[in-house]
Specification:
This protein has no helices and 11 strands. The chain is mainly β.
């Protein structure tokens, strides 16, 4: 399985970005997909996840501002990020879980994209 994340960039506080993650390999629709982020000097943290049945869960820090979606036909998952804050600055990673349920621990995700940098200026 290969995951390719894209869409990061530099944006002013209050702005928006849409991240994309394209998957190849095993059947995409059977597995949950997640977005994580890692800021400099910090651990990787959960952002959002979506199960194959379209269940969704967000970290409290992004709830109401970020939206995860997936297109199983095109093996893609997206993260729409609105009302961005400087504290959202991080490298964002997409990941595929080894199960079809929603989980938030990075350790249970089998496959990872290469990461895309999001920088939010104040």
């Amino acid at each position: 399985v290969q995951l390719q994340a894209s869409g990061g960039g530099l944006v002013h506080a209050g702005g928006s970005l849409r991240l994309s993650c394209a998957a190849s390999g095993r059947t995409f629709s059977h597995y949950s997909m997640g977005w994580f982020r890692q800021a400099p000097g910090k651990d990787r943290e959960f952002v959002a996840a979506m199960s194959w049945r379209s269940g969704i869960y967000y970290a409290d820090s992004v709830k109401g501002r970020f939206s995860i979606s997936r297109d199983n036909a095109n093996k893609s998952v997206y993260l729409q990020m609105n009302s961005l804050k400087p504290e959202d600055t991080a490298v964002y990673y997409c990941a595929q879980d080894r199960t079809s349920v929603i989980r938030t621990s990075p350790s249970v995700y089998d496959y990872w994209g290469q990461g895309t940098l999001v920088t939010v200026s104040s």
